Amino acid sequence: MGKWSFYTTNEIKPDGWLYSQLKLQAEGLCGNLDKVWPDVRDSAWIGGEREGWERVPYWLDGFIPLAYLLDDKDMIARAKRYIDAILDRQQSDGWICPCTVEQRASYDTWAISLITKVLTVYYNCSNDERIPSVIYKILKNYYKLLKSNEIKLFDWGRFRWFELFISLNFIYERYREPWIADLARIMKEQGTDYEGLVELWKCPRNEWTLETHIVNIAMMLKYEAVSCELLGNDYKDVAEQLRGILKEYNSTAVEAFTGDECLSGISAIQGTELCAVVEQMYSYEHLFAYTGEYKWAERLETLAFNALPAALSDDTWTHQYVQMGNQIACKKFPEKSLFRTNNSEAHLFGLEPNYGCCTANFGQGWPKLALSAFMHSGDRIISVLPIPSRLKTESASISLETKYPFENTLTYTVKANKDLSLEVRIPKGAKNIQVNGDESCSDLIFDIIGGETRKIEIGFTLEAQFEQYADGLSYIKYGSLVFSLPIEAEYIMHEYEKNGVERRFPYCDYELLPKSDWGFGFTDTSLEVKTNDIGAVPFSQNEPPITIKASFKRINWEFEDGFDSVCAKTPKSLNPVSDKETRLLIPYGCAKLRMTMLPFVE
After folding, report:
1. Other CB atoms closer than 10 Å to residue 466's CB: what's the count?
2. Is the pLDDT of residue 1 over 70?
3. Which of 19, 136, 309, 363 suits 62 as a labelling partner, its CA being 20 to 30 A distant?
4. Which residues contact 102 (CB under 8 A, 6 or more apart)?
5. Dihedral sign for Cα atoms in the order 561, 564, 566, 572
6. Are 582 and 549 within 8 A, CB to CB?
7. Taking 90 as the threshold, does the pLDDT of residue 602 lie above it?
8. Where do runs of H (alpha helix) occur along 292-356?
9. Residue 14 backbone dihedrals phi, psi, to 5 degrees
């Protein structure tokens, strides 16, 4: 299906800074959520009395590939215990979700799409031969219930109908039975038509709706890519059209769209939900795999290297529900929330600020990115994302040594067991490309003969440049990295219990208060890039692996009306109130408090 296929965790392994990032996640909240969070530890999915809908599947969706990418025996065993407990509770007719027969009609079957997707992930990691027949029984039962009108799609299931196609395609490849295509048709017919909703996306409202919910929309971008073949439709690149509308009316500097929780317009101080970030990444991974178009990989990099690490603490034990491009504090609002549909603590770093979906779901981001490093089609292999990785298959062994996106050298060592071709995608905007020192080599597709071992070193340069945002503001981008002016933060820790859930170190809540100035404007376009060593925390706020020196003057920016911890959407005045000074910008993903979109003052 599509142009490129994904490899499995048995074939791809992380190296370098990517390995460090995955280890941080394994040692942080995602790797320990089953020990500390009742909604996973005591879930109805495994016989407990806590949440029995999306949270355990969400967590497993990231925890499973993380465990197998790291070959962590303890994590693999814990994942298997959850899968075994879920399979043991599958009912004789195939139904698997934790509810009674009488409750089925009122149970939102978004959970069926999610758990069957998780089971495909588990199969691709574990090769557990039970899984295909389990998924077959779940989907066959789902088909019978929908076909007979005993149940219907509603609410989340209706808006996320396309998510079922991950497991539908998996099953169709193995069984090719007519009912599978008929179930695909039913899902499409009962599901939401997003192309009919675009007018709602053009003017943000302070109203919570499924039609403008940012996570639904982030998931939706892949709907055509994952569904068109099974539905028998031609691919028309609808995602490009819809993304264009979202970007025009709800853009950020880091490829995500504003949504707290619903679309929030173009503003440097509106939030973006973390669930939307990882789901948009997943959509772009599938869009690239289906189309092979580099634009989706470019956009994926920008999301992954900026929006994802920005919302996670360095130790990954805490996260934000929503992040802001210009975020001068993460302080609970005393009365009215700044956000359109989120509460006053949504931007705090904590266990489950605002709502627990992101607590369970954020873990899929880094592991699935790692699994998108290489893809294949027959004897063709493509290096999709130039991140440090190893690939080992029957055809070849390939290692990629690199510090990208912080440095711009890629060293591939390829040992081919049979004839193959390796295609390398490098970032858009790369200049002075050299292959093994040869500047005249413009072809980045390498034919390698079976039995040959070849070393390929690719170097290139990137330029830091200013990009225009809305409201007369600009930001700096270097390759896939967006840069921010960091604000020194004071961390205020809060340990407490709420609704039977403990928050205690290291999974407590934190408010971040500013300890340095933040009201600045750019004075000129001179920029100086400097690379540093990558430490144990790749996106460290204290030891960033790359910095940019730029010139600024202080300006009178002031606070947003009614708030004392949010900068105004735009500065009050562009008149400088200081002499020119140089300051270091750091990657957006490193800066927990930051000013990203700034004006030019002269």
Report:
1. 15
2. no
3. 136
4. none
5. positive
6. yes
7. no
8. 294-302, 308-310
9. -80, 150
Distance, CA of 284 to CA of 292 (rounded, Å): 11
Percent of the chain as helix, strand, coil, to the nearest 5: 35, 25, 40
DSSP 8-class letter at 563? -
Taking the C-alpha atoms of residue 149 and residue 103, their distance in angstroms, rounded to an integer, is 15
Write out pLDDT tens, residues 336-364.
999 999 999 999 999 999 999 999 999 99
Single out the residue of 278, 454, 437 nearest to residue 381, CA to CA.
454
pLDDT in tens, 128-156: 999 999 999 999 999 999 999 999 999 99
Closest alpha carbon to 423 in 373, 382, 377: 382
**What b/e readout covers 169-184, taking b as 16+ CB neighbours within 10 angstroms?**
bbbbeeeeeeebeebb
The burial class, CB within 10 Å (0-12 / 13-18 / 19+), for 248 is exposed
Q: Which token pair is 225?
A: 């890519």
> Over the stretch 581-597, which tens digit does the pLDDT of each residue have?
999 999 999 999 999 99
DSSP state of 382: E
Whole-number Cα distances in Å, 558 to 20, 312, 522, 565 = 39, 27, 17, 10
Beta strands 389-392; 12-14: pairing state: antiparallel
Give per-residue pLDDT as tens, 143-189: 999 999 999 999 999 999 999 999 999 999 999 999 999 999 999 99
DSSP-based three-state secondary structure for 61: helix
For residue 295 the two structure tokens come to 């634009």
Beta bridge partners of 128: none
Contact 170, 135 (CB under 8 A): yes
434 phi/psi in degrees, rounded to 5: -125, 140
The upper half-sphere exposure of residue 469, i.e. CA atoms within 13 Å in the direction of its Cβ, equals 27
Q: What Cα–Cα distance (Å) separates residue 398 from each residue in 68, 383, 401, 419, 559? A: 19, 10, 10, 14, 52
| pLDDT band for position 440 (cuts 50, 70, 90) | confident
